[in-house]
């Protein structure tokens, strides 16, 4: 089968001023050795040639790269839709204008909560008021604004307040994403995991708020895996739609695929993106259905959920080729 990537996630740096306990980009990565401007430009050109339609610039904190506007301009020239995924620390009016001029299509700012004391405690930095200011600056620069709040035990009871807060910022989209338990989140899961009752109430409130706000703002509620009966179609299937190039040039089928022991990731400094996409072992490993075992192998759901999440199967069962243990049909109890 011929797969074509749709989106490139460009993790242009690992550096970040925040210390969120659920981050999948923890300080386990060494600093330095980041791809240069010209290396990123080549990656962007190769992605466009492969058929990629959009590029998300992320990190770490992408605003820490002084050449960010240059990279965004390059992506726009290559015909890609560009999105900046940021904490917004470092976004002043001059920078916002520069990014807009470079052709940035949209910006997504993460918030930790709607209330400053809690938000700053979660972020491990005094950031909340700066983020509010940056959201206003982004809007004034004419950038369509999305917001993202990662939900966990400490903030999931505040959904109505969070929705009102996002609306007050003028966001056109609010992503409410229950923590995905990879990276630091997996290590910190005992303090992050909400109760089943919290999750149940939050889902009801999210549905109500989604209906109530639909004229003003799209609310996108990402379900919490651990309390579902079927897994999500993670990454829309391994090696089918997405590719991530990290700060040092390693290219991954999923941003957290490095949590899978034994997978070797090719680097754009040594290989073309086209070769990595179509030939590399890491992209081939769980692409399609050949790798599946029972019960996925004979399950009609496999064309919808692709057997769930490989990173989660690894973290909870120790074997990436197992059925995602979130699935009620999995025989493995983590
Ligand atoms: Fe999906 Fe596999 Fe569960 Fe079937 S058995 S629903 S394919 S995870
Ligand atoms: Fe990596 Fe699901 S998060 S495959």
From TrEMBL:
PROSITE patterns: RADICAL_SAM (PS51918)
Keywords on record: 4Fe-4S, Iron, Iron-sulfur, Metal-binding, Oxidoreductase, PQQ biosynthesis, S-adenosyl-L-methionine
Biological process, per Gene Ontology: pyrroloquinoline quinone biosynthetic process
Broadest EC class assigned to this enzyme: oxidoreductase
Essential cofactor(s): [4Fe-4S] cluster
Pathway annotation: Cofactor biosynthesis; pyrroloquinoline quinone biosynthesis
UniProt-listed Enzyme Commission number(s): 1.21.98.4
Record note on cofactor: Binds 1 [4Fe-4S] cluster. The cluster is coordinated with 3 cysteines and an exchangeable S-adenosyl-L-methionine.
Boundaries of every Radical SAM core domain copy: 2-218
Subunit architecture: Interacts with PqqD. The interaction is necessary for activity of PqqE.
PANTHER family in the cross-refs: PQQA PEPTIDE CYCLASE, RADICAL SAM DOMAIN PROTEIN
NCBIfam families with a match to the protein in the record: PQQ_syn_pqqE, rSAM_more_4Fe4S
Primary role: Catalyzes the cross-linking of a glutamate residue and a tyrosine residue in the PqqA protein as part of the biosynthesis of pyrroloquinoline quinone (PQQ).
Name assigned to this protein: PqqA peptide cyclase
Biological source species: Chthoniobacter flavus Ellin428
């Amino acid at each position: 089968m011929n797969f074509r990537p749709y989106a490139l996630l460009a993790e242009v740096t690992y550096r970040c001023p925040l210390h969120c306990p659920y981050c999948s980009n923890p300080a386990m990565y060494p600093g330095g050795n980041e791809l240069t401007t010209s290396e990123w430009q080549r990656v962007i050109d190769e992605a466009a040639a492969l058929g990629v339609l959009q590029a998300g610039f992320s990190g770490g904190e992408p605003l820490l790269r002084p050449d960010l506007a240059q990279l965004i301009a390059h992506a726009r020239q290559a015909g890609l839709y560009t999105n900046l995924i940021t904490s917004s620390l470092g976004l002043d009016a001059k920078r916002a204008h520069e990014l807009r001029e470079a052709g940035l299509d949209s910006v997504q700012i993460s918030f930790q909560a709607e209330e400053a004391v809690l938000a700053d405690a979660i972020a491990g930095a005094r950031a909340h008021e700066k983020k509010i200011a940056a959201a206003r600056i982004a809007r004034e620069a004419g950038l369509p604004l999305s917001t993202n709040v990662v939900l966990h035990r400490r903030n999931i009871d505040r959904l109505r307040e969070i929705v009102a807060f996002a609306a007050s910022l003028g966001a056109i989209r609010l992503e409410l994403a229950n923590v995905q338990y990879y990276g630091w989140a997996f290590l910190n899961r005992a303090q992050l995991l909400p109760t089943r009752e919290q999750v149940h109430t939050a889902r009801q409130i999210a549905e109500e708020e989604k209906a109530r706000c639909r004229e003003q703002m799209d609310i996108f509620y990402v379900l919490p895996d651990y309390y579902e009966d079927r897994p999500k179609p993670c990454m829309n299937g391994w090696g089918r739609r997405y590719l991530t190039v990290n700060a040092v040039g390693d290219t991954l089928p999923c941003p957290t695929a490095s949590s899978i022991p034994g997978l070797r990731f090719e680097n754009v400094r040594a290989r073309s993106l086209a070769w990595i996409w179509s030939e590399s072992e890491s992209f081939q490993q769980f692409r399609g259905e050949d790798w599946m075992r029972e019960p996925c192998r004979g399950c009609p759901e496999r064309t919808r959920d692709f057997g769930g999440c490989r990173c989660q199967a690894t973290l909870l069962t120790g074997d990436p080729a197992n059925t995602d243990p979130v699935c009620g049909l999995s025989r493995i109890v983590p």
